[in-house]
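Here is the promised in-class demo. Please do not try to memorize the tokens; focus on the logic of going from shape to residues.
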């Protein structure tokens, strides 16, 4: 059973990161858009991506991750890499909610952020992914 839960957990993680990579990229294009048709299109795309992929995959990632810990708690809880990974996942959930805040401001046409800001904001999940994968595979401590 553990292998199945792990497989679905990894699929959920991949979907979540795909959404976190693409959503801020949409913010870049949205911030650069000047015509009403494009702006409305980006609002719709952002909302569908957030609600249809990002939220469900984040929830699945967390639920399946907790299930994995429940099945083998000593294997994880006693290791330092797991504590750091857990902290990074919590911070990534915070980033996910920051995306929601930006999405709402863009939807209300009240965002003051430029496309340059969103280009940097778009790179944040890459840092999380690199560090989390290294922690899980290498288990440095």
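The designed amino acids, position by position:
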């Amino acid at each position: 059973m553990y292998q199945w839960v792990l497989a679905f957990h990894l699929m959920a993680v991949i979907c979540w990161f795909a959404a976190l990579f693409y959503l801020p990229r949409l913010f870049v294009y949205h911030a650069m858009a000047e015509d009403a048709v494009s702006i409305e299109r980006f609002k719709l795309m952002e909302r569908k991506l957030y609600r249809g992929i990002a939220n469900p995959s984040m929830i699945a990632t967390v639920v399946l991750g907790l299930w994995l810990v429940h099945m083998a708690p000593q294997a994880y809880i006693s290791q330092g890499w797991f504590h750091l990974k857990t902290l990074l996942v919590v911070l990534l959930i915070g980033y996910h909610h920051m995306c929601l805040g930006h999405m709402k401001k863009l939807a209300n046409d009240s965002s003051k952020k430029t496309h340059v800001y969103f280009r940097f904001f778009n790179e944040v999940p890459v840092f999380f992914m690199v560090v989390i994968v290294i922690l899980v595979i290498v288990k440095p401590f």
